[in-house]
Every structure is written in C-alpha cells, then in structure tokens.
Amino acid sequence: FFSPQVLLLAWAEDLECVPGFQQKVFYIEKPFEFTEDRLVLNLKFDDCKGNNKLTFQVSNPDFTVEGNGSLVALKNASEVGRALFVHARSEHAEDTAQIFIVGANEKHGALKEILKLEGNAGIPRQKRAILATPILIPENQRPPFPRQVGKVIRSEGTEGAKFRLSGKGVDQDPKGIFRINEITGDVSVTRTLDREAIANYELEVEVTDLSGKTIDGPVRLDIAVIDQNDNRPMFKEGPYVGHVMEGSPTGTTVMRMTAFDADDVSTDNALLRYNILKQTPTKPSPNMFYIDPEKGDIVTVVSPVLLDRETMESPKYELVIEAKDMGGLDVGLTGTATATILIDDKNDHPPEFTKKEFQATVKEGVTGVIVNLTVGDRDDPVTGAWRAVYTIINGNPGQSFEIHTNPQTNEGMLSVVKPLDYEISAFHTLLIKVENEDPLIPDIAYGPSSTATVQITVEDVNEGPVFHPNPMTVTKQENIPIGSVVLTVNATDPDTLQHQTIRYSVHKDPAGWLEINPTNGTIGTTAVLDRESPYVQDNVYTALFLAIDSGNPPATGTGTLHITLEDVNDNVPSLYPTLAKVCDDAKDLRVVVLGASDKDLHPNTDPFKFELSKQSGPEKLWSINKLNNTHAQVILLQNLKKANYNIPISVTDSGKPPLTNNTELKLQVCTCKKSKMDCSATDALHISLTLVLLSLLSLLCKSF
C-alpha cells in the first residue's frame, strides 16, 4: 500500500562505478503500520569489487536488511521515528543510506529539498561537470584512519586538473578533519566524528589547473554525521520533589520527570521511555505510583484510603526513575534519578484533650501560668492542621484568665492575668475548647473531646493593708506652723475574714517635714513647709507612708501623699549682675542693664520697683531708669575717675506685703586704650560713695 520515492542524484550512464550505496537518500510515505516481514524498500550497495563479506546494520532494531538489500520489518510497528539509517560494510568499502519517513503532505517539500530544484517544480537543475553527492558518516567510527567515506567525480577530464576541498573541517577550524585525493577525488575522514559536537559540514569542491587556478566549481559537498546511540539519558533538573495530598483520588498527577538525551531527536537514539525501578518504603503497597512511560508523569495508583498519611510508615516516598532510550528496548542506554514524593497532610483529625478535667491551684494576688493543658492531634506536626487554638468559652466574666498555645509543645498555657481575690471567690471553673488553625475537612467535626474543664482553687494569703485613696492629695500653704495637721490617712485590711490591727509609719519623707500617728494615721508637720525647697517638684511635695497589719508574718501596704504647697511672699527679689565696668572716657554712659528675679510665684514677684539710695554731695553721679517689669538701666551722669564705686540700689517685689532687697552694684571705672580695658589700679582705691560722704562730713566738722 505504499511505494518508495527514489531520487537519483546522478545518472548512471555518466558515471563510473562508485563504491557504496547507489542511492543514499530515500523518502517513503508513512504507513499506518509497518507489517512484519513485509518489504519496505530495496537498497543497492556495490563496493565495485564483488561485495565480499557484505553486512548491514539498521538504526532501528525493529528492522533488518537481508543479503539481497531488502529492508523489512521484524514485527508490526507503528512508531519508528522520523528516519532510519542503514550502514553497509564489505571488505573494500562502507557507506550509509538514510530513509526519511514523511507524511503525504511533506513529500513534495522533502523531495524538492533533496533534488535542490530551482525555479518551477519538476525542472531539475542543469548538470555540472563536478558531481559531489552528499556523504553520510556514522559518528564514533574506530581507527584505522584516514578512512575513505565518499568520492567526488568530474565528468569532463582535463589533463593535469586537481581537486581542491575547502571549508569548516578542512582549512577552517576544526581543521584537518577531511581531505580529498586531488587526483582521484576520494574524500577521507581523518578522525572519529561526534554528531553532538558538529552534526553537518558544508564543504566546497573545485577543480584547479596546475597553476592553482579554478577551472570548475566550486560545488557544495554536504557531509552529514549519522547519529549513533552514544549518549545516555540524563536528568538535569533535579532535585525532583513532588507533593500529593493524602486521600487524593486514584490517578492524581504528582509530578513530571523529564530526561534529556543528546542524541538525534529524530531517531530512536533519543526516544525515551520511563519506568519506576524501586519504591521506598514499600508499604502500604509496593506499587503506590505509576509513571507514564512516554510523558514521565507520576500518578497515584492506590485508593484514597491507602493514601492516609497518619497510617503510613513514612509520609515520604523515594522512587528510582529510569529513562531508557531506543524506545525502551533492552539495547537502549539508561539514566536514573530519584523522585521524592511527600504526602501532604490535610486536617482530617481534630485535636482532643488528653483528659476531660484539669486541676490548678493559685495564690491570690499572683499572676502567670497556672496549668498547661495537653492535647493530642494525629495530623502533621508544625502545620496548621496540627497547631492548636484554645478559647475560654465559659467561667471568665472578669477576663482574669487568658490561654495561649505553646508553639513547641502545642499545649494550652492557662494564665492568670488579673490577680484573684480569695475573699471574693475561692474557686473558679473554666470551660475551654480547642480547635486547629486550619479548618477541618468537610466530613470531619469537633467532638466532645475537643472541650475540657479546668477547676481552679484560690489559696488565701496575708495581703497588705490598702490605703484609700491612693495616692492621697492635699493642698497646704507653705510656712504653716510646726505641728499643723496635714491629713488623716485611711487604710483597710483586705483579709476581711481575719481580724487584724493596723499600724502606720513614715516610709519616705525626703525633707523630714512630717510625722504620722501610728494608731490613727494623723499626719502632722515637724518643720516649716517650704515651697522653694529642692525637695519640692512643681509645687508638690511627695512622701510615702506604710500601713502594717498584725499578721504572721505581717503584711505591709504603701500609701503615697502629694502635698501641693501654695506660695506666700517669703523671698526677697535678687539683683543681677552685681558687677559692672565702664571706661573713664566712655561716651556711652549707660553702664549696665540690671535684672531682678524672685523665687516666689506671681503675684509675689514682678513687676519690680528699682530705686537708688539717696545720693548726697554737691552733684549726682548716676541714675537708674526702669526698662520693663523685670529690668532697669544704670546710667552715669558724667565721666568718673578711675576707681571702684559701690552704688546702693533697692529692688522691691509686688507681694502683699512687698519685700525689699537693699544691695549694692560694684562699678569699676577703668582706663581704656586701643580697645583694651585696664582695671588693675581700681582695686586699690576701693572708693565708695558712702566713704566719700563720711570724709566730707568729718572735714566740715573740724572746720567748725
């Protein structure tokens, strides 16, 4: 039902005998199936010397070539690849023929490619004097070399003409692979070829005269390297790890394994088939998975019941995968890789408390973890299907308890976060539920074992007395008389079931101003309260007091007292600066700007009143002018001689009654030359206005 399409690359009547296949390239239409023992086509090989010891080898083991050159199928086959290669060898020659298997719509294009038709289809190219038929050379040939692989023929003989070969593999890198006998046209290969390195060589043949001048050509000579099965399949994309959810349906795809073969993909040399060589572990079934031999897809083949992570010996399976070329035949080369398949957990087991009731004991007034609640969960640890989430669903109206999950143990850590009071309640009962972070699968629900009760017993302890209120605040005026009552404190004992007495004492009194009656808690003053004291911050003085019960051992409570001190006008204003300097020839007689400050608070401070004490003598030497509420300026009324002068000044605040500070400003009159002030001699003069006035009075008295 099919016929070979024969291409003659030269006309026999024009040629002498050429050793090798008389036709090297065939195209046949792909049949539905190659039938066992049925002729495919006839091959003709002639070594021109009788074909002694002629043998044939076919690239596909499903075919053979009989002694008469008949290519037949050894068995029924539908998939044989895109090409077959037949290698023939005799005592005197060897050659390779190539059979391309094409579809009906591919034939025309393929024939045109081989015929090298130009112009309109069906018109052959013009015959040339040089005939260079394509040469096919199997890779990995063994020595000896050089080995004749083909022949170039010139139909027109010219005396002294020589063949010359050029191109990649001859005079271009890689150099020296091919050479031609310049007289006979025999083409030889000098070494073993590797198709995976270079699959095709495009050379040029030309004919030259004795002088080297080209007289014919160049003509293209194609050399194709025929693939041999010399490369094992390789898995290059590892590591190979796949995941499948437990309980998945039979036939669930887990992952795909893909190997690479460097041989010719159009031949069976690179036609791969996959197989599982080994599965570890072998339980619950030695055949948990199947691999598609052509695609490499690994799928589950056991029922969902067996794919149960919690009942498996291990949730990790390792498969040794084999890839074999030659379509998986025994003669094929193999490569292996390990596929790791992890059975992923789904939340098909709810967490369950290890017991229905837990006990805990805690002292009143104490916080922290009081009990760890234990649960069991058969799902995969450290996953959301295993991690527990605890909730208090009853018995915690005051939010005194909290529960958190221990991330390492999955236990529920129940804590007291608000201190418990034995006198209010000695027992607490909590109802707690546990769930997973991830939701359960639809057909699984939380049961009674996912809730538990916690019975908590509160132990009584001797608690310290409590001040009411705490802190305590009171406002007092500073400078109140010693012995004044500040406040009477009140402390009670929370241990209402115990009959105890309370004593009071001073715990911290930084300034030592206070005392407390140990029996009734009355606080009084032992010193003057001073608002301006360094122990007072922001007008507030703070002291601490203790209330001690009569328990064994006694318990203590601490109370804080804040006394806000009201200001009274008990501080005179101060003046600054107290020293000023001026040149004896100064043109600007404004000596200094004085400022005043007061430790008291407004209205016992500014505005301040600045005054000079009464000046005696024939003329006034200075004056003082108020600038604002807190500053005034001293002005000389004339230049003075170099000396020290003490100027009496009074400054008065605005308190009721007002307070006045009488002080002196020391004024140094200095000699100034070239912007340098010399006050050295003034210290020896020590002249003050008061002394000058006294001396004048003494002289006046003597004159009378």
Describe the structure in your own words.
The protein is mainly β and 704 residues long. 4% of the residues lie in helices and 42% in strands. The chain has six domains: 20-102, Cadherins (Immunoglobulin-like), CATH 2.60.40; 130-226, Cadherins (Immunoglobulin-like); 234-344, Cadherins (Immunoglobulin-like); 352-455, Sandwich (Immunoglobulin-like), CATH 2.60.40.60; 466-566, Cadherins (Immunoglobulin-like, Sandwich), CATH 2.60.40; 574-678, Cadherins (Immunoglobulin-like), CATH 2.60.40.60. The protein contains three helices and 53 strands. The strands form 16 sheets. The protein has a five-stranded mixed sheet with strand order 1-3-10-9-6, with helices on one face. It is elongated and about 155 Å long. 29% of the residues are buried. The model is unreliable at 1-15, 106-127 and 683-704 (pLDDT under 50).
